Amino acid sequence: MKTGVYSWPAEPSPIAVPWPSDLEKVEITPAAQNQDGAMQAATLESALETAACLWEAVLTLRDHPATDPDAIALALAIRETCNAVGTADVRLTVVSWASAVEAAWSAVADSYDLCFDWDFVPDWIIDHIDWSDLAHPTIRPEPVPQDPDPAATNEPVAAPPPSLQPSADERN
């Protein structure tokens, strides 16, 4: 390897990384002038903040776990996932969880006594993310509510529709 010689890296694709001249062409003012644009901007800002909170929480859970075995196991799983697929891939996956977190937050925000970013989001990650597949951490499906035991209630599980019930002749 040569020392003291610097070569510029290959120019990134304009699709992946827009150059400032492309950004200057974007007009933001008209969107902000109408109510729909303001609502879209607020929604986008909220989603960006949620994504940032998610990423901060993942990094904190990975790099500063509590001393209990579950937290340490989670930190190791997050670290192994970052090593397996790369931090950038994990970050994109984490960002994709923003709408699920916002939906969960909207369901409890009025009754939740702690803060969104430092309490709710890390707890949501702990409770809802499955890190067992290192290449694909995913949101666990919500558990299906279990019906009470039909035998305990002494009720039939389901009555067949009248068209499927045997006639009086068939029952004899």
Fold and architecture overview:
With 172 residues, the protein is mostly helical. The chain has a domain at 39-140. Helix content is 56%, strand content 2%. The protein has 9 helices and 2 strands, in the order αααααααββαα. It has a two-stranded antiparallel sheet with strand order 1-2. A hairpin with a 7-residue loop joins strand 1 and strand 2. Helix 3 packs across helix 4 (69-85). The longest helix has 29 residues, at 35-63. The radius of gyration is 26 Å and the shape is globular. Residues 138-172 are annotated as: Disordered.
Topology:
Elements: H1 20-24, H2 29-33, H3 35-63, H4 69-85, H5 87-95, H6 98-108, H7 116-128, E1 129-130, E2 138-139, H8 150-153, H9 168-171
Antiparallel strand pairs: 1-2
Helix pairs in contact: 3-4, 3-6, 3-7, 4-5
Spans of at least 5 consecutive residues with low confidence: 15-19, 22-33
Question: In percent, how much strand structure appears in the residues?
Answer: under 5%
* Mean model confidence by pLDDT: 78
Helical fraction equals 55-70%
Structure annotation, total helices? 9
Radius of gyration: 26 Å
Neighbour order of strands in the largest sheet: 1-2
Distance between the termini: 94 Å
Helix and strand content put the structural class at: mainly alpha
Shape: globular
Got a strand count? Answer: 2
What is the string of SSEs from the N terminus onward?
A: HHHHHHHEEHH
Main beta sheet: 2 strands, antiparallel
